[in-house]
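Need the bound structure for S-adenosylmethionine, inputs here:
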Amino acid sequence: MPFSLHQGDALSVLATLPDHCVDSVITDPPYNSGGRTAKERTSRTATAKYTTAGAKRVLPDFTGENMDQRSYGFWLTQIMTEAHRLARPGGTALLFTDWRQLPITTDAFQAAGWLWRGVLAWHKPAARPQKGRFTQNCEFMVWGSKGAMDARPVYLPGMYTASQPSGTKRQHITQKPIEVMRELVKISPEQGTVLDFCAGSGSTGVAALLEGRDFIGVEASPEYAAIARERLKSTLGDTLTQDDFTLAT
Ligand SMILES: C[S@@+](CC[C@H](N)C(=O)[O-])C[C@H]1O[C@@H](n2cnc3c(N)ncnc32)[C@H](O)[C@@H]1O
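Answer from helper R.:
Posting the output first, comments after.
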C-alpha cells in the first residue's frame, strides 16, 4: 500500500506495528532546542520559537517541543528503540537535529541500538549572517543502520543546499524542503517503505511517494495530520484509489 497515516502519539502508534515492516526511518522530531536558559527552552511554544513576530501566515502550533535536555534524550532513546524494532535488519535511519542537540541525538541514536554511520548537513543559503560570528546556516541529519548494510549501487551526497519552503508552499512551521527529502529517501531501496513518526505536514511522505517508495506516517497534531493527508493524497493524484492508503486515529 503506498501510504498509511496515523494521527496519534508516536510511541503508542509504533507499538502497534509489526517487527521489520520498514526499510528506512527518516524523521524530523521537535528539536527541543533554542533559548539560552532552561526556562527559555521549556516555556516557549513552537510557534514562538520558529516564526518571526508579526508573520503574515499563522500556522498551527505543535507539541513535543518543551522537553529539557535529559527528557529529550530519554524520549528520543525510547522512540528510536521502537523504530529499531520496526526496521528490517540492514535498514537505515536518519534523524534531523541542530548543532545544539547533535550530541544528545547521536547518544540517543546509539543507545537505541542503531549503528551510527555519520552526520549529513542541510545548508540553508538564506540564513542571516551574524556580526562577529559564524553563520548558523546548517541543520544536521544523524544517520546509521540496523547492523550491516547491503551495498546498493547508489552514491548519495553528504550535504544538501535548499531553502525552507516559503509563502503558500509553507504548510508547517518547521517544514523541510521537498528537494532535500527526495534525495534522503533514496537511502531506502526502490519500492521500500519509509517511516516518519513525526510527520508534520508530510514532507518525508510526499518525497517517498514521488521516489517510488511506500510511506508510513505518524503525526500527533490533528491539524498537521490533516495537512499531511491532503498532501499525500494529492501526490498520488488521479491514480489514487481507496486501496492505496489507510488513515487511522
Ligand atoms: C519538526 S516537525 C516535522 C515537520 C516535517 N518534517 C515537515 O516537513 O512538515 C515535528 C512534528 O512532530 C510532531 N510530534 C511531536 N511529538 C510527537 C509525538 N510524540 N508523536 C507524533 N508526532 C509528534 C509535531 O506535531 C510536529 O508536527
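Comments: Strands lie at 3-7, 22-27, 87-97, 115-123, 138-145, 159-161, 193-196, 214-219, 245-248. The chain has a mean pLDDT of 92.
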